[in-house]
Amino acid sequence: MKFSVQAGNPLTCDTPALIIGCGAEPATTPFFDVVDEALGGVLARMYESKEFSGKPGTVKVIHTLGALPAQRIVLVGVGDLKEVTTEKIRRGAGGAAQALVAAKIVSAASLLHGVAPMAGLLEASLEGFSLGSHRYDRYKTKDRQEVMLKEVTALLTGTDDKELPANSVATVESVCNAVRMSRDLVAAPGNLATPAYLAEQAGEIAGRLGMECTILDHPELARLGMGALLAVGQGSRHPPRLVVLEYKGINDGSPPIALVGKGITFDSGGISLKPGAGMELMKQDMAGAAAVLGTMQAVAALKLPLNLVGVIPLAENMPDGNACKPGDVVTTLSGQTVEINNTDAEGRLILCDALQYAQRFQPSAIIDLATLTGACVVALGHNATGAMGNDGELLAALLRAGESSGERLWELPLWEEYGDLMKSDIADLKNSGGPHAGTISAGWFLKQFVGTHKWVHLDIAGTAWEDKGRHYLPKGATGVGVRLLVKYLQGIAGERMG
């Protein structure tokens, strides 16, 4: 999607659709009166008849029938204008985008960002338009959405200074392109998105944006001693990979931040087979890997002044005659041994080797993302990502980035007592602690492989996929983690530049 910013009068704007943010009280909404007057008072009558309320999440498309150069007016409810937030604007824009896609409108102009004198509303609205209009239809041969929303122009009515908005627009485009790419990877079926395919995509991104890319295949993983990663992938005809992306945005010798993303390209559960109902969605078990790839792409496109390394373990968890079995013991890259008492707790196995490998870069911090536990969905539902770690400042910074980006986090405890759940009778650790505190015990397990480095684990099991579709999250993959991490990394870059 392309964005542009221009100074203009909404009453003379010739566009297929003019998007206006509307409060609960129409009299306080900017430009409401002048547009309503041009339309003969129809907008006010819609409020009076309760046909439109201005509540957050409401969208109404009205044909102007030639009364304005704009062919349609799209009313977007944002609620009380004194309580407007960037997330409300982002969601409103997403709802408007879905309405425009349904109406097969390819371009629009927007005043949504002008509902309140608040920083960040322009960027939030553009994010909502881009992400709300996204669709994955690669395999559609019938009923394909041929007409998509392709361009949105943000109208500036009070200033001719477009330099700052133009910079903001370029940033939003880069980040949203990365989110859309991440969504497409997660949505891709398992017969396409194999470990080899994702490694190829990583190489393409690195080549296009000037990053270093190293891909370790089965023999190299065996030579290094990544017994946990190899164990998960040994039941599949698609061998595992470890992808390492390096972005060097500043040449001052500063250590990189390490991002680690779980990349189970399809999770059958292995010998501990999952139920058949809903198993098709286990193609999304590589959403953590996709988030890391998307973040690396966005950071490189934005040329942020920092160093970043992405470590992505990739495997397919399948139950053939060579698959690992409950009761098997493997030796991890760290040298610690793990009893596999549940082959469906495979994500932490591939992550433990990847986290250990990430330490080789002596990172200033390690952040991992994984669709790790169903227990996190039980605890937090689909509105928050579970977060835990060993450093309060890193956690606090990510929590702030979550609030700002709309990808909210909720901290869970990581007390040492939870480690009792992961003790094995025959090995150093076991990979599953049973039905209680499943998210926390998994996080505690990962903590054993980060050494003394600052580290945060993000369990995105509940936020990586949207079942129904809402505002800027259409049904399917959400691309969660990309905007969160970019927001956090922009803060780091700003501190170093400041």
Please, could you describe this protein's structure?
With 498 residues, this protein is α/β, with parallel strands linked by helices. It folds into 2 domains: 2-139 and 147-157, Leucine Aminopeptidase, subunit E, domain 1, CATH 3.40.220.10; 176-497, Aminopeptidase. It is built from 14 helices and 20 strands. Strands 7, 8, 9, 10, 11, 14, 15, 16 and 18 form a 9-stranded mixed beta sheet that branches. It has a 6-stranded mixed beta sheet with strand order 1-6-5-2-4-3, with helices on one face. The chain has a 3-stranded mixed beta sheet with strand order 12-13-17, with helices on one face. Strand 12 (328-331) and strand 13 (337-340) form a beta hairpin. Helix 12 packs across helix 14 (482-497). The protein is elongated, with a radius of gyration of 24 Å. The protein starts with a strand and ends with a helix.
List keywords for this structure.
498 residues, alpha/beta, Leucine Aminopeptidase, subunit E, domain 1, Aminopeptidase, 2 domains, nine-stranded mixed β-sheet, six-stranded mixed β-sheet, 20% strand
